[in-house]
Amino acid sequence: MIFETGYLYHIYNQGNNRCKVFLNQDNYFYFLKKVKTFISPYADLLAWCLMPNHFHFMVLVNKVEIECSSIKEAVQDKNRQKPRSLNDSIGIMLRSYTRAFNIQNGLSGKLFREKTKAECINCPKGIAPSFFIQDGITQMNITIPEMQYPQICFDYIHQNPVRAGLVKRSTDWEYSSARDYAGLRQGKLVNKTLAAKYVDVSGRQVTP
């Protein structure tokens, strides 16, 4: 994954062999804590959705790496710091969650697919319209991709539970930011003010 500051990205991954990665409410909440710890220092989260076997995030990247001291380095040299990239931090987040999940369920091995996908959705060049492909290619009739892809991605993320048949309305699904944008919850994970600069957050995404 290659990130650049100042751009929007759609980040997603799913369970290895499409297995479930969230089995109960505690799993969902624990993963969100990991997101706050490992992604929020680098990016503003504008939309998110956790599904039983995969996740989606829409973020605005502010930093591609930050200084982070490891315990070993801190003992050797308190002034020495090691940069950690957003890529590295996402990998650490998934491995950390996997360890906890496996211990809790008596499992071993990889939980997520090897590569987490990240596609820029407002870059002037190289925008990939395939961020919402599931079983086939969906054609989109759009004229200004750097302006329209963010809205399509934003709406798509919130509509995932509806398309999967888990709920009738996106606001019925507890594990996404749709409820925050609909004013049904005052979650602190998404930056709604910043999101409004890029997409329509008036509520159009919460209807089936």
Please name the defining characteristics of this protein.
alpha+beta, four-stranded antiparallel sheet, two-stranded antiparallel sheet, 6 strands, globular
- Biggest β-sheet: strands ordered side by side in the sheet: 2-3-1-6
Largest sheet: 4 strands, antiparallel
Helical region count?
Answer: 6
- In what range is the share of β-strand residues? 15-25%
What is the element layout, followed by pairings?
Blueprint: E1 8-14, H1 25-38, E2 43-51, E3 54-61, E4 65-68, H2 71-76, E5 82-85, H3 86-105, E6 117-120, H4 145-163, H5 178-181, H6 192-195
Helix pairs in contact: 1-3
Short description:
By secondary structure, this protein is an alpha+beta fold.
Structural commentary:
By secondary structure, this protein is of the alpha+beta class. It is 32% helix and 17% strand. The chain has six helices and six strands; from the N terminus they run E-H-E-E-E-H-E-H-E-H-H-H. It has helices at 25-38, 71-76, 86-105, 145-163, 178-181, 192-195, and strands spanning 8-14, 43-51, 54-61, 65-68, 82-85, 117-120. The strands form two sheets. Strands 2-3-1-6 form a four-stranded antiparallel β-sheet. Strands 4-5 form a two-stranded antiparallel ribbon. A hairpin with a 2-residue loop joins strand 2 and strand 3. Helix 1 (25-38) packs antiparallel against helix 3. The longest helix has 20 residues, at 86-105. It starts with 7 loop residues before the first strand and ends in a 13-residue tail after the last helix. The model is unreliable at 70-77, 130-143 and 204-208 (pLDDT under 50).
